[in-house]
User: Fold this.
Amino acid sequence: MSGDKLPLGEPDLAWSFNKDGEAKPELVSKLEKDIGYRVEDKRKERADLKTLERPQMGEGALNKSK
Assistant:
């Protein structure tokens, strides 16, 4: 442990895919292989959460000047 107060190094940007078709099929296939489950199976397991979704409009909706 170096005792640095702030994270050092290159910044990382993380995001998630929100709709079908946003991720390339080969990326989904690699994820499924690496993690060991099928995305479609996980989608079915979480189907009951659909009623709780509250989609965001995006950053433009927060900036009234756009």
User: Anything to note?
Assistant: The radius of gyration is 18 Å. Residues 25-35 form the longest helix (11 residues). Residues 23-48 form one domain.
